[in-house]
Write a structure and sequence with these properties.
Chain lengths: ~500, ~190
Amino acid sequence: MEKILIANRGEIAVRIIRACRELGVSPVAVYSECDRSALHVRYADEAYAIGPSAPRESYLRIDRILDAARQSGADGVHPGYGFLAENEDFAAAVRDAGLTFIGPTPAAIETMGSKTAARTAARRAGVPVVPGTESSLGADVPDAGIAAIAESVGYPLLVKAVAGGGGKGMRTVTDPADLAGAVRAARSEADAAFGDSAVYLERQLVRPRHIEVQLLGDIHGTVVPFVERECSIQRRHQKVVEETPSRAVSPALREAMTSAAAAVATEVGYTNAGTIEFLLDEDGRFYFLEMNTRLQVEHAITEMVTGVDLVRWQIRLARGERLDLDPAALITPRGHAIECRIYAEDPDNNFLPSPGRILQLRTPAGPGIRDDSGATAGLDVPIFYDPMISKLVAWAEDRPLAVARMRRALSEYLVAGIKTTVPFFSWLLAQPEFLEGRFHTTYLDGVLKARNGRPFVEPSPDVEEMAAVAAALQAALSPGTVAERAGDGGASRRWQARARAEGVR
Amino acid sequence: MRYEVEVGGRTRQVAVTRLGDAFAVTVDGREWRVDAARIDAQTLSLLVDSVWLNETPRSPNAATGPVPAGLRPGYEVSIAPDPLGGLTVCVGSTPVAVALDSRRRWGRADDAGAAGAGPQRLVAPMPGKVVRVLVGPGEAVRARQPLVVVEAMKMENELRAGRDGTVAEIHAREGTSVDAGALLIVIQ
């Protein structure tokens, strides 16, 4: 491969461009209307417009992406994560166009993309799965039948979309009386989100931790697992903070979990990068949850503690190269790494999205800090996509030092023009539960509910006084920047008008 | 130059006078001598001496407790418009909502709660699509009760009541697109 088209945007497109450059491969970008000025377009050697801003008219258009690949003469396609990354039709279309898909085979994507088929594969590999139904419950299964199955699974349970992901098409049921309603709601959500109303039932574990294992596989049959990542800090089923290694995983448990993950991947003949997700219960038992057949958002923390460039390996494996990494080194972490997903959201206003123009951006730097971002000052955070603007990663020799380094980095992070979740992370990283590693997948939703909207950072009287001084000085020195923009005019309003004219959402 | 600056629900009278290379800034009678260096259009670096009360504010990053007089704490501040019509001033990495010369922020739900006086205007904080209107005209609502669901950036977002009251007006219509700042509901 000499030229790779990146079928994605934002920080992950930039991340892949960097790997291409380091390998001497020419990176090709695609972009939607609102991304013309985005960083991935500016970093690439070539860039091709693929349609309007709404994802289904651009980043989800297989035909337009393949047109761009043909036009550019690219011989490989990297899907990144999200969008088409776990779409077996896309992987097959890329292959059928005579190009190399940088990821697993369409068959592996299809098998592991179905939650019930993936559970079957795990069971065949001898890996325990969360107790639940063996097969999917299609729309034709009557309520009475589902109730009987639910009794055998046991309450509390989760109703989950077979094609699901990202918390969509998922309902918790504690009382059998709520089962029918929950199934209907999950079906309708799953049908709208994935075009498939099939669901299955899974017992809800009590206070589980989310532990996952990164894998690489070559086409010669070698699969290697990496040290686990812990992703138990979640808001509404979305990961917010990830770290590696986990405080809850002993060397013996690590050996067991990484071996189990490799067994599942081997069972389905998995190639390229993927991740096996497990739930770990309070007694130290783990259960297969699902497999993500792509690069993960949080891959960077694994890179920090192992020194392995996962994206470079994805490209090398797609070329057919052999894995020659030392397996023992991959499950022996060097130090500790933490990632905070910085979102354009207002944490003090129920985490509402805060799209708009980034007027100023100063990202943290210095020892042990990595900021993977697609944002720059002068760019709009569009309303069309996921509001993540950067992944802030801190590495240090041990966990307390990594936390201290992350808090230092957060204090350096300055963004003007939009709200971000930086103040929320400053609060979270000072909580005793976080510092002591006492958390599980519902910890964060619980404390957020208990806080009932209380601000994460309450300015002291001194800080309020300085804010007043600063606003008055800015008004005196540059009246235009305050007066023009505070009213109706200004770039952000024009941008919003344009976004609305495009008629999306 | 004189300004009315509202921070944390309290309005302060602020005067700015040039003093050679620096500025004298008086906040409700307290005077600060400020060396202000412009970093970019939104950003200032401030080095602050207190004059009148001979007391110095604490640096936001320092340990708690008063700072002895004679110190000269530094602040990096950025001043940017809020989509709702006010300003967000970041003092270090601490964001502070500020309204300058009675340019009030447009009725953000949670802000209206404390004041309690007058109708509360719930506006869209971002452009999006109204997915659901959860209340009807004349309905009694409680503080933090969800009123409208607006979809933006792939997420459904609940907009909540700032305080207890009664639904007086409903402007939001399910299925329609709204701009940031669009009036959705009025609570009496």
